[in-house]
User: Fold this.
Amino acid sequence: MGFARTQAVGINGVDGHVVTVEAQGSDGLPHFVLSGLPDTACAQAADRVRAATATSGLRLRPRRWTVNLSPAGVPKTGSGFDLAIAVALLAADDTLDPAAVGGTAHLGEVGLDGSIRAVPGVLPMVLAAAQAGVREIMVPAASAREAALVRAVRVHAVRSLTDVVTHYRALADGYAPPDHMPTPVPSVPQTLPDLTDVVGQVEARTALEVAAAGGHHLLLLGPPGAGKTMLAERLPGLLPPLSEAAALQVTGIHSVLGVLPRDGALVQRAPFVAPHHGASMAAVIGGGSGRVRPGAVSRAHHGVLFLDEAPEFRRDVLDGLRQPVESGEVVIARADRHVRLPARFQLVLAANPCPCGRGHGKAAACECTPQARRRYFAKLSGPMLDRIDLRIGVQALTRVDLAGGAGEPTESVARRVAQARAAQEARWAGRSWRVNGEAPGHHLRTSEHRLPRPVTRDLDAALDRGELTLRGYDRCLRVAWTVSDLDGRGCPTRDDTCFALALRTGSGLAA
Assistant:
């Protein structure tokens, strides 16, 4: 009777969890049992592994084989357990030393020809293994660069089951096995769109700078061709590079979604995600039947989520953004588990003034009925709009704007944004938030950062008149702090709070 165990890593949402793979062979009619709540792809590992071992000249003895994926009560999804299952079986069959494979984690899909193929989510799997104390990990050669981003583990890259057997036999013979690690590829600087391409739109450019400096959400309202999309696409260029921790988290999400660049390089710039207006709830928010996959909001984590033609999105999709906008995460509930997906992003909405797009400043040219205009904006619910910090009207361009020349380049604006962010990082040191846009409203109203009554007089009056909700009041306070940081002041003035109020109510949906 042979027995062996090794390690694998599963994925739940975007978080990895270590799985112990146990293999046991006993006398009896040849049979293969795989337990531990495998999904269809995982359960088919038995057929893939048997064919791959035979093709590689490592044929398993005809016995009753039982493989258990522990903890058995946690669902296992995908084909990433193949390599660990194959290694555990070969060790239980005395082809490999059971003591040598026990402390190593194995990730990868096994092909019928014995090749080891890449699977999505290698980076979060390796991170989870490292956090669990695993120090040796074997991955497909195609995923080696991605796995090597985690410095706490030693990565062994293999291309086939033959390489796996060669590796462990070399260890048994007492010499260092060869690792097929690819040559590192130097990262290429990413070229981002520049603000000099945007003609005119001084107010909108100012709002974009404030949004970048404080991490605020933004609504751009204006006719087609005014530059709303161009402005939104230039927001990532104003944001500072990601920290190492944030870069690993963003790269891990991209890895799970299978959209990581082929060279496996670390994602170091804020992502920009712009889903189509026909996208489903699962595509934008996350979910799916069986395996829970991150949506566009998670792909935009630490970056920008841009919804162009926002009123054309489904109402339930737009309202589904309310939770992640507030909490920075999405919670997907299933009968057997809850999956938490990170979703700390900046939301940018763009909308036309009406369905035909000609109702902004040229009402005589608009062909839309009042009912059509109301239906158009009805999808942008009041509770959703209340979570938007800045609402800016983008005017149609004229020949005067064309003659005005190019505005400031992205590089100059990004320097001011970086200085404002440095001031916020110093102010909020030791807190759970880093930028003004994430500061809790109750903290700004009750702590040592509470502004004097003369400074908030206009906000107080707007709250009393019903022009602001308490949420809107708090968001105006956040914007006022950001305006103050951009101007290099240590504390907002009354002018800053008035400007924040104008950015929220003065030239947005009322325009």
